[in-house]
Amino acid sequence: MDKLRRFMKENWWRYLMNLVLAGGVYWSSTWYVMTNHATANVRTLQTAFDRWVPVIPQFIIPYNWLEPVLYFCLLFFFVVHPKIFTAFGVAFIAIQAISNSVYIVFQTYVPRPTNLVAGSSRYVDALLAKYASDNPYNCFPSLHCGLSALAASFW
């Protein structure tokens, strides 16, 4: 108990600063919604290789797990490692700012497969649900890749 009391006494200011930073992390995560729609200059980033690679509906599972993993990382670092949370939060906001800046000036679109049949498997249904809730814009740079790499690097 003494260690915890001393830790809190020495780090109260960091927790206070991190509360403000946590608000910034939340605020930066709302920017994506503002840019996830078609604009006048949408570029399709698709190559012949992209058309050759099949869609694997099972990949929706790790794709959908990113948000819970990020929430866990944010909460864990905030509570257990406030110094790491500070760096993680600043990097999180930077990734959001850079990505959304690119989305504003270089909007991208990725065509979605049209051959997916609803009801054919739970993975296809989950993928179609994701497609219904998220527009096909803002694909480059990938926030999934950037934020996954951020979380992995801090662990």
From TrEMBL:
KW Transmembrane (keyword) present: yes
Sequence intervals crossing the membrane: 12-34, 69-95
Record has Transmembrane helix as a keyword: yes
Alphabetized UniProt keyword annotations: Membrane, Transmembrane, Transmembrane helix
Name of this protein: Phosphatase PAP2 family protein
